[in-house]
Amino acid sequence: MAKQLKTLRLILGDQLNYKHSWFSKNQENVTYLMMEMRQETDYVVHHIQKVIGFFSAMRNFAHHMSERNHQFIYLKINDDKN
Fold first, then answer.
1. What is the pTM of this model?
2. Which of 5, 23, 25, 36 could form a disulfide with 77 if both were Cys (CB 3.0 to 4.6 A apart)?
3. Domain span at residue 78?
4. Per-residue pLDDT tens for 55-69?
5. What is the SS3 assignment for 73?
6. Residue 30 lies inside a defined structural domain of this protein
């Protein structure tokens, strides 16, 4: 039996579109990756509320899509794996 290849898709914080064609159907071989990265907060000075809003939108998107049976890996900024 041939192994099915896995696909890892990176979703950035400015790409939160649940109507994107990627999400039109659930695919068991596709995993989406989202990460809260320190680089997003440090490349230019941001108000803390903007950073919190940005990360909150990302978390909500990942949660929303996970509830619809899409496979997500989400790494929070303080996650040991991040």
1. 0.85
2. 36
3. 44-82
4. 999 999 999 999 999
5. strand
6. no
